[in-house]
Amino acid sequence: MQAVARQTSWLDLYHWKGEFVTRQSFAKEKEWGPRINGHRGELHGIIWKHVMERGSIDVRLDTRVVDYFEDGEKAGVELVNGEKVTADMVIAAEGVRSRGRKIVLGFDDKPKSSGYAVYRAWFSGDAIKDNPLIKHLVVNGDTHSGYIGPDLHFLVSSLKNGTEFNWVFTHVDDGNIEESWQFPGKVEDCLKYVEGWAPEVVEIVRCTPKDARLIDHKLVYREPLPTFISPKKRIALIGDAAHPFLPTSIQGASQSIEDGVVLAACLELAGKNKVPLAVSAFEKIRYKRVHDAQAMGPKTRERWHKANWDEIRKTPEAIHLMREPWLLNFDAEEDAYGRYEEVVKSLEESRPRL
């Protein structure tokens, strides 16, 4: 994963007009373990390759799940072609619009707009390497910068020694979530949002190639769920299906992977004949941690979008990303193996007795 990751140990933060404010260093976090920041598609590719190398896993692409079901002995999914596939349990990991949420909650809950949307672009560093205003973002290796303004923050980075470049900005959105929630973006629309911003920001957007992947997608909000697991404990929600994160949390992918690791550990320790117990233990281990991590996203967004610049110039670290040791200096697998027996005991003690 390091081969596709951005090789920086800092984030440079600027006022939206272009004034440099502060550099946040992540160097001390090395003792907590490696940091991976890269293109999610490439990270998916690495995981995909690992799955394929196992050789015994049936993977079906372009196959839509339309429903979930379970009984006391098994769980399953119904595919769009009518086929039903059953197993000891089902993991619903298809994001904020997961159909698995209905069987877990007992009703169809509708996504809500968070009031914000995001533009994202990714393209070759060659597109700007000769531009005198912004070439410094790619010609000297990897970089990571952010511009903070009223109800908008703009993040930009390069990776693979400056050969790839990306930018993203979160902005206020008043659209209806029932509309298409992800669609191609237009440079001319993006430029309207950053009008009057730092010349570098405007130039970055203006120089986005026509063939670049530029998307605009709504940030979907979901109320925290009372549970991540189905009534018969044969279906579990993980990742955004259970707990969608705002980009400012910088934890969506990480917490999804932690979910998978903990669930795998619980299933291993419980064994095939105690799947519902494993699923219950998974939820017990994960529930508080993911909700605490989830809460960090709105906090960071508010610190940035409502920034008091008079105060920030006195204490620039006030706009640093929150980097909590309890969140980052943590081994989810080790924690699951270490706590499993204790968690199972508490679950068994809490069962109603006749």
Automatic annotation (TrEMBL):
Gene Ontology molecular function: monooxygenase activity
Gene3D superfamilies tied to this protein: FAD/NAD(P)-binding domain
Domain of life, per lineage: Eukaryota
InterPro entries in UniProt: FAD-dep_Monooxygenase_BioMet, FAD/NAD-bd_sf
Swiss-Prot/TrEMBL keywords: Monooxygenase, Oxidoreductase
SUPFAM superfamilies: FAD-linked reductases, C-terminal domain (SSF54373), FAD/NAD(P)-binding domain (SSF51905)
Stored PANTHER family: MONOOXYGENASE (PTHR13789), MONOOXYGENASE, PUTATIVE (AFU_ORTHOLOGUE AFUA_6G12060)-RELATED (PTHR13789:SF236)
Family per record: Belongs to the paxM FAD-dependent monooxygenase family.
Protein name from the UniProt record: Uncharacterized protein
Species assigned in the record: Clohesyomyces aquaticus
